[in-house]
Amino acid sequence: MQTYQIVTIDGDGIGAEVNPSAIAVLGEACGERLRFLAADGGAAHYVKTGAVLPADTFAACRESHAILHGAAGLPGVTYPDGTEVGNDLHLQLRFKLDLYANVRPIRLYAGVTSPLTGWGAGSIDYVIVRENTEGLYASRGAGVNLRGEVVTDTLVMTRKGVERVARFAFNLARRRPGARRDGQRRVTVCDKANILRSYAFFRAVCNEVAADFPDVEIDHAYADAITVHLLKKPDFYDVIVAENMFGDIISDLGAGTVGGLGIAASAEVGDTHGLFQGAHGSAPDIAGQNLASPVATILSGALMLRWLGERHGDATMEAAARRVETAVESVLARGEHVPRDLGGAATCTEMTSAICRALA
Ligand code: IPM
Ligand code: MN
Fold first, then answer.
1. pTM of the model
2. Which active-site residues does the annotation give?
């Protein structure tokens, strides 16, 4: 049976707690099929060594089957230009490994109460596909700062970049059962095509790609309007594709409607590599106290298993992904162990052992 080399980067803050938790759950689900290799990186590592992403860590990531990351970033650890060092760990990995699709499932699990009234388990179930290698982030570290008087960051769209993330979104819609509201396979293009040419270009390229997917409905929503729609008609959405910065913003809003960032998983994938991490940050205020919820990182681990299964035609990995997700949902549904971010008092280790028991 094929085994998979998984590079794990705990990073900073709660990363050192939630990452080992996910490794324990994935080990319970997959046994010897996964070989974990711990690697350094993050803001604390930068303070010690000057490197947020050491060369040997990047080399291990490049040779790996997948990367599992905790979280990165520490307050006050910034570059001279004022931007945060810790974020550079996964931004460098995104750009160097060309992880162009940042996949953010937004799903209301049993046992989790949405702040939106009247929505029960499974009634909200869509995926945000955020372009992850260009848009406004193309200017990270490259903006213009003239004498501290005029500062600009340019939003960059390329035909290749938009086309491949749109195609990814449409193919994802083909693999899903359709929107909860009407069962329609749908890709919603989120942009501000009414105002900026770059977003009009984004929309035009997505429309071109749509022509290859007559079985998938195409829908359009401006980035401001969709923030209202995600609150008032979340069941209408199936797959949403958005430029980098807009995707960053609406994915947190979406996560907020299904329990928050403590339950928000992410898969950052390209054609050859994948990085999996919770969508939350390093939460230094609760780090080292066993208070963090490992759920987002564990669910990101399930996304990793599913991605490995699809890439390698390995049905056992896809089955293991389903078992991990079912175990998480059964623990949340039972309500005996509820993490703090969802209103309970369960510790990181208590959530981990409860999910491992549910798996066994
Ligand atoms: C995210 C985060 C990152 C981003 C930061 C930590 C670099 O907000 O993954 O959503 O801005 O993409
Ligand atoms: Mn974000």
1. 0.97
2. 137, 192, 224, 248, 252
